[in-house]
Design goal:
6 helices, elongated
């Protein structure tokens, strides 16, 4: 029937978003701390912002707030065009629905919180999955820490030899 359907999944609790200066973290709750740090890095947009962004790009489109991914996918037909609305830049929490839409043959595009609109093809999807893994596992931070720790003794020895330590 060729409808444009915007799908919004918001995995970010409201107290994690747009509160960058007042994030309170309990050291006794590492999972909560991890999620807050991940939300801090992702900088997700609000649902209201995403709704406005979708209406600006697709005034004729229908917006679905996805609570149950299976139900949302079942409601879509072969000719429909799905627009995934990522509140963050890389779509944390969208992996399952992306895979399901791809297997059903539904044309899928992405509109992220930064206002970028792009088609979700196989190459883009793999790239997003890699970026999500790097961001979720803090691989860049881990690599920088390991390099710093490995270099510290050499830098210290260099300073001692030059009389600076």
């Amino acid at each position: 029937m060729n409808k444009t359907i915007g799908i919004l999944i918001n995995i970010w609790p409201k107290d994690y978003r747009h509160d960058r200066d007042r994030i309170k973290v309990s050291l006794l709750a590492p999972r909560s701390m991890y999620k807050k740090v991940l939300a801090y890095k992702a900088m997700p947009r609000t649902e209201e912002y995403m709704e406005t962004l979708f209406k600006n790009h697709f005034p004729e489109g229908k917006l679905l707030y996805c609570k149950n991914q299976k139900e949302t996918i079942r409601s879509m037909e072969k000719g429909d065009k799905a627009i995934l609305l990522y509140p963050d830049s890389i779509g944390h929490g969208f992996r399952k629905i992306e895979a399901a839409l791809t297997t059903r043959g539904i044309e899928t595009s992405v509109l992220n919180g930064r206002g970028r609109l792009f088609a979700l093809d196989r190459k883009t999807w793999n790239s997003l999955r890699l970026r999500r893994a790097v961001e979720s596992l803090f691989l860049i931070e881990l690599a920088a820490t390991l390099i710093f720790l490995a270099a510290t003794p050499f830098l210290l020895a260099w300073d001692i030899l030059r009389g600076r330590a």
